[in-house]
Write a structure and sequence with these properties.
alpha/beta, Rossmann fold, four-stranded antiparallel sheet, disordered C terminus, binds adenosine-5'-triphosphate, binds magnesium ion
Length: 298
């Protein structure tokens, strides 16, 4: 088994340059991306507007072709027709038929995936429950849907084929805090079912709550990669926590610490926020920006 066949997503030197009408280089949207996403992982792709997040997703789906490099998805080259039915995709903007209602939309996509009618009868209401569209909403035409409702039906559509890999481009856009919480819980429940989720977002708190690992893209280049927990750890500061100490004990502990170790105190590395990390990475890579403004300077 190699990384390309064994992982959910594996890219090597993946590069996309958009060209203009005359074939001249226009935008280097993705530059030499080497990324492996393991099966069963929730992975976050972060980055400011225009950093190459949607381009990456489109390359993985085979909707556009790479200028250079390779991408494998669920062990097959990106775009292979054999893996399409194992992938679910929630695009940045909904492209669903506005004249169908919620229920009809799911049935329509179910039929596209050749799901038998008797399975669809069970699966459609189940999914509508999962994404929180009530009995009344599911009978309304999509053109009457609010942003949040459109996001929910989009997600249900992405899950209709019970995919192994789910690509979510800005899944919480337009959702209120409750909807956002529900979307996050849903992503975690997909992980529990052993699915792999790749999610793009600017909403850092959402990413922090659900992702195992993240990468930050900036101007098409991967700037940082790692476990959320590790990336947010401030390694050169040690924090000692304990409960109900008297001032005298504190003095003694300080004295004691000087000489020896501590038994009952929890010693941890405090974390910074993902927001600080994000701002810092972007500032550090912006020519002429004042790095002192970035985050807390850690
Ligand atoms: N079809 C296209 N033709 C030319 N340039 C494009 C095309 N699609 C995207 N780009 C450019 O490629 C760069 C990356 O775009 P992409 O949509 O991948 O960014 P993104 O990280 O998803 O941004 P956002 O957060 O705004 O969704 C941008 O500079 C964008 O203008
Ligand atoms: Mg995008």
């Amino acid at each position: 088994m190699t990384l390309a066949t064994d992982s959910a997503v594996h890219t090597e030197h993946l590069t996309k340059i958009y060209r203009d009408f005359w074939g001249r280089d226009k935008v280097r949207a993705l530059d030499d991306l080497n990324l492996t996403i393991h099966r069963g992982e929730v992975f976050g792709l972060l980055g400011p507007n225009g950093s190459g997040k949607s381009t990456t997703i489109k390359l993985l789906l085979g909707l556009i072709f790479a200028t250079r490099g390779t991408a494998h998805v669920l062990g097959q080259p990106a775009g292979s027709t054999t893996i399409n039915e194992k992938i679910g995709f929630l695009p940045e903007e909904s492209y669903l038929y506005r004249f169908l209602n919620g229920e009809e939309t799911l049935k329509f996509y179910g039929r596209l995936f050749k799901i038998p009618s008797k399975d669809l009868k069970r699966r459609v209401p189940e999914l509508l429950d999962v994404v929180g569209l009530d009995q009344k909403s599911r009978k309304r035409k999509l053109r009457e849907y609010s942003k949040g409702m459109a996001r929910r039906i989009g997600l249900a559509q992405a899950l209709i084929n019970n995919p192994d890999l789910i690509l979510l481009d800005e899944p919480t856009t337009g959702l209120d805090p409750i909807g956002t919480r529900e979307m996050k819980d849903l992503i975690l429940s997909l992980k529990e079912q052993g699915k792999t989720v790749l999610l793009c977002s600017h909403l850092l708190a959402d990413v922090q709550d659900v992702c195992d690992r993240i990468t930050i893209l900036f101007r098409g280049k991967m700037q940082t990669l790692g476990q959320v927990r590790d990336l947010l750890q401030v390694r050169d500061i040690t924090q000692i926590q304990t409960r109900g100490m008297t001032p005298q004990q504190l003095t003694e502990v300080q004295e004691f610490l000087r000489r020896t170790g501590v038994t009952d105190a929890t010693i941890t590395h405090p974390t910074t926020t993902l927001e600080d990390l994000f701002v810092r990475v972007v500032r550090e890579n912006t020519p002429g920006a004042d790095p002192r403004i970035a985050g807390n300077g850690q």
